[in-house]
Amino acid sequence: MSVLPDRPLIKICGLRDLDGAQATADVGADLIGFVFAPSKRQVTADDVRPIVDALTGEALPVGLFVDEPVDEINRVAKAAGLPLLQVHWRQNEEDLLALELPYMLVRRTEPNATYDTVAPDLERVLASQNPPVRVLVDSYHPGASGGTGVLADWDLAAQLARSFPVVLAGGLNPENVASAIETVEPVGVDVSSGVERDGVKAVDLIEAFVANARVAFDREIPKVETLG
């Protein structure tokens, strides 16, 4: 059974303290992302464990990793008390098999990416012995692994969402999230910089993002397939 609820999901990424994480949970987000990869939003297991232990409500904490060795990912996730991971396509498929927790797999859409170049890879990993519970489609930005504010390719994401359990990321904010959901019909959305002011998470923007996404999801009612 998947660790994720069988409904469209709203993820807020890049939280760094209990007040922000709890406020995010309180306004109705489903997933709260903590970035363990090198980033201006980077945290450690020692930072996150007290937050996870104190967090109330139904929101699930998620640990974000990029190039870290799989043994390190498993160790840090256990130390932080995480129930869910998010890893990048840079991990090889043997590493994905060795992950000890359910995970979402990030697939960035390079400028030359097409459905025909991306879909076979996703089909293969989703058919593996340890498939991801969701596929997060994000924008491509040289030298950055996320949180850049750059829009993903919505046309490609929409094509992928017809075949795969796509969570859409990349350049989303309270103003465009409803249009993104209407266009792509994903099973979830993910935001980081789009709910910040001067690099700091803003609760009013998080609340607006969650509210606008929830209304749009209620209109679209995308089908969510349970994986893993």
Structure description:
Helices cover 36% and strands 19% of the residues. It has helices at 18-26, 45-54, 70-80, 93-98, 115-126, 154-161, 177-184, 203-220; strands spanning 9-13, 31-35, 60-64, 84-88, 103-109, 134-139, 166-168, 188-191, 196-197, 200-201. With 228 residues, the chain is of the alpha/beta class. It is built from eight helices and ten strands. The strands form two sheets. The protein has an eight-stranded parallel barrel, surrounded by four helices. It has a single domain (9-220), classed as Aldolase class I (TIM Barrel). α7 packs parallel to α8.
Form type: globular
Major sheet: arrangement of strands? 1-2-3-4-5-6-7-8
What distance lies between the first and last C-alpha atoms, to the nearest angstrom?
6 Å
The domain tally reads 1
What structural category arises from helix and sheet content? alpha/beta
CATH architecture: Alpha-Beta Barrel
- Please, what is the average pLDDT? 91
CATH fold call: TIM Barrel
Level-1 CATH class name? Alpha Beta
Percent helix range: 25-40%
Biggest β-sheet strands, sense, barrel: 8 strands, parallel, barrel
User: What is the N-to-C order of secondary-structure elements (H for helix, E for strand)?
Assistant: EHEHEHEHEHEHEHEEEH
Low-pLDDT segments, ≥5 res: none
Number of strands: 10
